[in-house]
Amino acid sequence: MQNTPFDRYKKNVHSQNGEDGVIAELLSRLNPDSDSESWCVEFGAWDGRHLSNTFLLVEKGWNAVYIEGDKIKYQDLLNTARDYPKIIPVNNYVGRYSTDNFSLDSILSKTILPKEFAVLSIDIDSYDLDVWESLAHYEPKIVIIEINSSAPPGLIWRHSDRTTGNTFSATHRVGVHKGYTLVCHTGNMIFVKNGLLSKLDIEQRYIDFPELLFLYDWVSLRSI
User: What is the CATH number of the domain that holds 211?
Assistant: First the structure.
């Protein structure tokens, strides 16, 4: 087990790889100071509960925009929203590019989500990185994004017809460009806005050498 800054906080309630605990610790240090910040966004959300990185926040009273494209799964999401009315359910597949009719910006603009919100979780098993890269009008403090963790740092590819998922290094490159710093790898990568890093008390070596955060347990011999 690696001893990276947030490993000790990993815990699952609804998440799959410890994200619930890491997010809780990040939020405790960032200390959102207004109701407008108590918002999260997740897609593909399915029923809003299953392997969710943000549903624990909803259970604590947070507002959420949950986006699910599959019509059958969306019915499950509606059932959850009846129990948790602070969920805004949206039935759309999120477009890959900013110019798409249903880009993430376009979908979110039809809700009351504030521009600066706390947590964005992206998990669509494909063009996750393109979607994050396209987001221009909203500024989440924390971004959780799924990657292909079977590829170690140094390999760079993005999801396409010939490659599956987005690699650690490709995703990190986009995060840096968008003004974020990697703070944890769980199988997902978890980023925080650069301006908030001083609140997290992370050793500089993890900021300078983000590959130290990578969990090599995910790398199969086949992919090396």
Answer: 3.40.50.150
